[in-house]
Amino acid sequence: MSELAALIFDVDGTLADTERDGHRVAFNLAFEEAGLEWEWSPALYGELLAVTGGKERIRFYLDKYNADFKRPGNFDEFVAGLHAAKTSFYTKLMSEGAIPLRPGVERLINEAKDAGVRLAIATTTTPENVTALLSYTLGADSIDWFEVIGAGDIVPLKKPAHDIYHYVMEEMNLAPEQCVAFEDSYNGIRSSHQARLTTVVTTNGYTADDDFTGAAIVLDQMGEPDEPFTVQRGDALGYTHVNLDMVRALHRAEHG
Ligand code: XBP
Ligand code: MG
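Above: the input record for the complex with xylulose-1,5-bisphosphate. Below: its predicted structure, written as tokens.
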């Protein structure tokens, strides 16, 4: 039997509810600054989340929802420029404390750290966004709590491809049986499940109805001792909030 050695966290939707009031708002600010009359409503953004990665999402939007837009000759640069502006709006929003961590996230991270369980990040978002979220919620030192931050274009294929999880495990010299992943979305569970990781899913407004085949458990949140989670699928083994004991028990149930 393999011991649990590391927790690998997705970022957007898992650590914090960043999509609707963080990324979406930052995209719209970048569009406005560029003089574009594009406005991504919360409902449209839900459809655009089918594609991971901000640059990829802008292209998907133009292909599927704004095909009449006359693309400039230097289209790749145009998309990259818009996305860079979006990243700076996003990190500014984080610095203003726009988005808190989800319930239970800080408690679980601290518990793992204190128990010597290693920590890592596997996300499709841009590295600056991860460091902004972590430093403005957990403090600047928290960046160093995570042994590997696998983010953005570091692998050519973003989630639902499993590449980012392989990258992180390779950097940590760990096998899938030694890790548990935390995800919130269809694309996320596809990625972690293909990487053969036990995965705890916490859903959010955009992902509550997603297909989470392959998840060890699906919950509405990690919860706190005085704020229990609701189980959406699976067996919570008698626990009411996600703590390290519960993560170990779920890991044992799949690998024991
Ligand atoms: C979520 C994503 C990202 C963000 C936008 O990543 O798909 O693309 O929506 O960030 P995850 P960027 O859930 O894996 O953390 O604009 O920086 O790509
Ligand atoms: Mg996510």
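Notes for the reader.
The chain has nine helices and seven strands.
The chain has a mean pLDDT of 97.
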